[in-house]
Amino acid sequence: MLDTGIDVPEVVNLVFFKIVRSKTKFWQMIGRGTRLCPDLFGPRRHKDRFLVFDFCQNFEFFNQNPPVTEGGVGASLGEKLFRARLDLIGELDERSQDSDAESLIVLRKGLVAHLFEEVQGMSLDNFIVRPQRRHVEKFQAKEAWNDLTTEDRTELAEHIAALPSAVVDDDLAARQFDYLILMTQLALLRADPAFVALQSRIMGIASQLEELGNVPMVSAEMALILEVQTDQYWEDINLPILETLRRRLRQLFKLIEPGERNIVYTDFEDEIGPGVDVTLPIGASGTDKARFLMKVRHFLSQHKDHITIQKLKRNEQLTPQDLTELERIFVDEAVGSSEDLDRIRADGGLGLFIRSLVGLDREAAKHALAEFMDGRTMTANQIEFVDLIIDYLTERGLIDPRRLYESPFTDLDDQGVSGLFPAADVQALVQVLNEVRGRTAA
């Protein structure tokens, strides 16, 4: 439960009670025991060892030196909300001449005020916030929010969105409803086909609330709840109307009872078998890798306009000259050693590594999937699935096709991509993803 970010020098026993397949995560967990502690066992008897009890054969797994993936940690709801509000601000700024400009200005001010309050609540004494101190301090100044540029929004998304804040809304259901409305507003502005599925979800929520008409809070908003379920409500829908809907119904969302699940009872005793000593595999620590990634991200921010990095973001094919020049700068500026480059090449190449950090331009991601979507009549769930792929490519630059059978892609169907598309379409989709990956190599 306390696998990373915990520093307790007195710890001499670690218990591994979950399967780990990320080498970085594995070494971070080992790192909980490596903290030095003077005089722990008595005067001048310093801590010089610790013991690991591994109940899930993680040591045996990594001793086999298998090809592993670092996997991906899903963004928290707070981070998703922060990024969605940033995206909405960006879309509004591009439409500042809209005929409904006054109400949109009010909406934008509310979004900025909310994000500014969150950043104000980020304590620079927090060890998670501290590494991003320069970025946090910049946006804790009110004037930094007066005219947010594309670069400002990118900086906020990459360095601040995931940080903890003292401004906390404990109503999880209300925040989930906020996110649903934000995604609906974005889909409306972008004329995104996903709007239909989002509209259907909102109408479904209204239908569930209608069944709770005997609750005074719900009864007070019954006129709106009934109106939301009509086609007339959605004919002239706009952002201010959706914002009003969010404010009036967000506190009611928690009243909807989740579907009942069968309770499973078990009656068995845990037994610990005989222990076996396993030699700790040699490898780099997670801390070293984190420091290396920090240097690489700084390097990329300094060279974001480099032609090769721009090609990677736009999903353009790289040439051998592109990679050679990038490797030269990489070494000349001491971002990494020759050994680091060798390791990166063994893991797929420098282009693949950098793409995973800078992601894809959203338009490039959409263009990559456009040919797949053309000529196909797709359901709302299929469209939403493709949108998830576009979001993933925008953030991380590439997708291992095996990820299409994991969350969040299994949120729409338990079978992932195979549950939504026929086999031929699955093969076509995998081919698209492999082509996106292939363009990172010369």
Mean pLDDT across every amino acid position: 86
Which radius of gyration do the C-alpha atoms yield?
25 Å
> Main β-sheet: number of strands, strand sense, barrel status?
2 strands, parallel
Q: Which structural category fits the helices and strands?
A: mainly alpha
How many discrete structural domains? 4
Shape: globular
Distance between the termini: 43 Å
Low-confidence stretches: 283-287
* Largest sheet, spatial ordering of strands: 1-2
Q: Count of DSSP helices? A: 21
Order of helices and strands: EHEHHHHHHHHHHHHHHHHHHHH
Strand content: under 5%
Describe the protein's topology:
Layout: E1 13-16, H1 23-30, E2 51-54, H2 58-63, H3 77-94, H4 101-120, H5 133-139, H6 150-159, H7 172-190, H8 194-210, H9 216-219, H10 222-228, H11 231-235, H12 239-249, H13 286-302, H14 307-313, H15 320-332, H16 338-346, H17 350-358, H18 362-373, H19 380-396, H20 417-420, H21 423-438
Parallel strand pairs: 1-2
